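Our preliminary data section would be incomplete without showing what the modeling component actually yields. Below, a chain of 222 amino acids is followed by its predicted structure, encoded as tokens that our downstream tools consume directly.
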Amino acid sequence: MPGTPPDTPRSAVPDLSARENLRVSRAVPADRAGRTTTGTALPEGAVEVRRSSRRRRTVTAYRESGRTVVLIPAAFSPAEEQRWVAQMVAKLQTREERRRRSIGGDDELMVRARALSAAHLDGVPQPASVRWVDNQNRRWGSCTPADRTIRLSSRLRAMPEYVVDYVLVHELAHLVEPSHDARFWSLVARYPRAERARGFLEGVELGSAHGASPSGDDDLVD
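Predicted structure:
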């Protein structure tokens, strides 16, 4: 699964699953398990609004633990909150759908993996199957060298294409070298945007832990 080279600190991986339900939870801080500070569990697909006194003019939305989190300024009125939650959820859904179409389904993923193998790994790793899965909430990707199968978390559908490509290269490299040794990382490093993609994924993890936007996208309030 994608990670960082040896001796680099690792962070817990957040769940960024995309669910399309617009039930709104009031602005109560939540922990990583998707529960409010009162101990009430938030349903998957809910929209959680988090108010921040540090925000003045920005609104952000992102996926976390099966729900949508919308960060808004603490000074917003209920009407402003309702308007911006609807706007940001719609924008997030549109962005994710656009990326989903560009990345495609399992067949397109296989074509993409073979092209990356040829471009960066001399065509050596040849996967038997590459597919999206919805049950990987702690890993971005995984592979089984014995049967040459690769699985990518559907959470990646909401991320830039170069990040998806990095995860594919990472898993393809495991078909050549199963362990995370120096040879493995030298193979992964052949992908030109490997370092940038790792930084993006680390930002997702850290951003989720601290209540920031994993995508880094903020939208100015009119």
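Residues 7-40, 216-222 have pLDDT under 50 and may be disordered. Residues 51 and 76 are 8 Å apart (CA to CA). Preliminary results of this kind motivate Aim 1 of the renewal.
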